[in-house]
Design goal:
Elements: H1 14-32, H2 37-55, H3 72-76, E1 79-87, H4 93-103, E2 107-111, H5 113-118, H6 120-128, E3 132-135, H7 149-167, E4 173-174, H8 185-191, E5 195-196, E6 201-202, H9 211-219, E7 227-231, H10 244-258, E8 262-263, H11 266-269
Parallel strand pairs: 1-2, 1-7, 1-8, 2-3, 4-5, 6-7
Length: 278
């Protein structure tokens, strides 16, 4: 059974390092001059306000390593990565798999482990068809970005154990629910050998039921190296109740082919020593 490679020596990003240094300096300032406590407290509040704002920006790299594009080698090979979140869904995921198979495209499925345990055969089918199953948390809590260290670690570990057991392959990548994360996530992932993946662009297909609008967001500037986000779980229903992702995907695959691009799994894109891509 494959396992992720742990990287125990976590180093904060320069921004987080600066925030830590400012906290230490503030405490020292109050120790030397107690009357400065109000200014120090105001400074701390400002720092935390900035961090709270960054939590709401899924593609930012200030809170930790964050993959938003494929590495240069994949760009040169003309590759993109189709990624699907929030599944598996027994009504949608099999149809997504069939559509991908029609053109030989490979994709990465960020699965919610709670759903994976409910539909284990579907998770195994994703893996059997040579797609990739990755970690999208255990329960997909909307409050994930506000979890403390140990609660967040337990959630990730539970999902990692379930998905590894179901596929025989330990996830190497993680995507936070809604992409939102706090500074505590980076050391947790690094110590488990997991890498956080956001996206280059997303279609907002959980909120937008117009397939043309979703396709436009994804394909208007489609280029090699793009990581595209769609959903096989929670995709918005169109007027006929068909999940919009099923209308968008064929057109997106056709657009990909027209531009001479090839959809690969994240493992495939990072297969050739691209360990420094963030």
């Amino acid at each position: 059974m494959a396992t992720a490679t742990a990287r125990p020596n976590w180093r904060p990003t320069p921004f987080i390092g600066l925030c830590m240094a400012l906290h230490v300096a503030g405490v020292a300032a109050v120790a030397v001059e107690p009357s400065s406590w109000l200014w120090t407290l105001t400074g701390f509040a400002g720092i935390h306000a900035v961090i709270a704002g960054l939590v709401l920006l899924p593609r930012n790299k200030l809170l930790g390593a964050n993959i938003t594009r494929l590495p240069l080698a994949a760009v040169r090979r003309g590759e993109i990565a189709l990624t699907f979140d929030d599944g598996p869904d027994p009504a949608v995921t099999p149809r997504v798999l069939d559509l991908l198979d029609t053109v030989g495209a490979r994709a990465t499925f960020f699965c919610v482990a709670e759903k994976a345990r409910r539909y284990p055969d579907l998770v195994r089918e994703i893996h059997r068809r040579n797609h990739q199953v990755e970690n999208h948390s255990d329960a997909h809590s909307l409050g994930f970005a506000f979890f403390g260290y140990w609660r967040m670690a337990r959630d990730i570990d539970a999902a990692q154990a379930s998905l590894t057991r179901l596929t025989g392959h330990a996830p190497r990548f993680f995507r936070a629910p809604a992409g939102m994360r706090n500074p505590l996530l980076d050391p947790i992932l690094q110590m488990r050998g997991l890498r956080h993946v956001a996206w280059t662009r997303r279609g907002f297909d959980t909120a937008e039921a117009d397939p043309e609008a979703v396709l436009s967001r994804l394909a208007a500037s489609l280029d090699s190296g793009n990581i595209l986000l769609l959903h096989d779980g929670g995709s918005a229903p169109m007027d006929d109740e068909t999940p919009v992702v099923l209308a968008v995907l064929p057109a997106l695959l056709a657009r990909t082919k027209e531009r001479g691009l090839r959809s690969v799994t994240l493992d495939g894109a990072f297969a050739e020593g691209d360990s420094h891509q963030k």
